[in-house]
Design a protein that fits this description.
Blueprint lengths: L7 H20 L7 E2 L4 E2 L4 E2 L4 E4 L2 E2 L4 E2 L4 E4 L2 E2 L4 E2 L4 E2 L4 E4 L4 E4 L2 E4 L6 E3 L4 E2 L4 E3 L6 E3 L4 E2 L4 E2 L4 E2 L4 E2 L4 E2 L4 E2 L4 E2 L4 E2 L4 E2 L3 E3 L4 E2 L7 E3 L8 H12 L1 H15 L14
């Protein structure tokens, strides 16, 4: 017979703590094959699939669903109701399901708009460190299967990223924009809200996207780096383009050869 060390009260307290751990594990549907790391928090009604790895200091809030073989590496925060597809890998520092940036002006102040949607991540997705994906304002934010997101990417509320698209680091996508399938988006791109980017579109690094792109095709913007004195001359010339256009228009008008202002010139294709 095993002898008990310490007071019976300490033994009973430890037994109650163990039973409470088992109760919580069962109430959160934690399979025996799942690994829950130190200091991780699992919320009520969270569903954890087989062979899921929840790493050190992760926070999985209530009603989150993790399908089989999901890997939360460490310090990942999944806010309430988020759904993560099978075999998805989420690197440290990622936050999924925080409130979207929704505010409305009222009497000179900004009033917070409730964000009642959620986030759905497909299967075989990888999300890089410190990337943030906001929950939808009404409809869910969606990342489809096979998408690969680099570090420090921001997806605004209601964004949809199509299957097997890859996005490089430090890119920001504003709310309600739809990115097509099999797209390639370079680093540090900025994509405005409520746009549609078609399937197969490639946007090179530092691209600034302010209109929808039907695709497929390769799109670029911005001036490549050059010596400062050359760059200053280029910027000065860009600033003078409007006055130069007006001068040319007046000259063409005098010669009777003026073109419509919206005419891009002859098509040499």
């Amino acid at each position: 017979m095993r002898l008990l060390r310490g007071s019976p009260r300490c033994y009973i307290r430890g037994l109650i703590g163990r039973l409470e751990f088992i109760r919580r594990r069962l109430s959160r549907q934690l399979p025996a094959s799942a690994h829950i790391g130190a200091l991780a928090v699992i919320g009520d009604r969270a569903v954890i699939g087989p062979r899921v790895h929840v790493g050190l200091r992760c926070v999985v809030e209530e009603d989150v669903v993790l399908d089989e073989d999901v890997n939360l590496v460490a310090s990942v925060t999944l806010c309430y109701g988020v759904k993560i597809g099978a075999r998805t890998i989420i690197q440290p520092g990622v936050v999924i399901g925080g409130d979207g940036f929704g505010f409305a002006p009222e009497q000179g102040q900004w009033v917070k708009v409730p964000q009642v949607g959620s986030v759905r991540i497909g299967t075989d997705v990888e999300i890089g460190a410190n990337t943030t994906i906001d929950r939808g304002a009404i409809e869910d934010t969606v990342v489809e299967e096979g998408v690969k997101l680099d570090n420090q990417i921001q997806l605004g509320h209601g964004v949809r990223v199509g299957a097997h698209t890859v996005i490089a680091g430090c890119t920001g996508i504003s709310g309600s924009t739809v990115i097509g399938k099999h797209c390639i988006i370079g680093g540090a791109c900025g994509i405005a809200g409520h746009l549609t980017i078609g399937d197969g579109v490639i946007i090179t690094g530092f691209g600034m996207v302010s209109r929808s792109l039907a695709g497929p095709g390769v799109y670029s913007s911005g001036l490549p780096i050059t010596e400062s004195k050359i760059w200053r001359r280029q910027v000065a010339r860009v600033r003078n383009l409007e006055s130069l256009f007006d001068r040319v228009k007046r000259l063409e008008g005098g010669a009777g050869t003026a073109q419509d202002e919206n005419d891009d010139g002859p098509d040499h294709t």
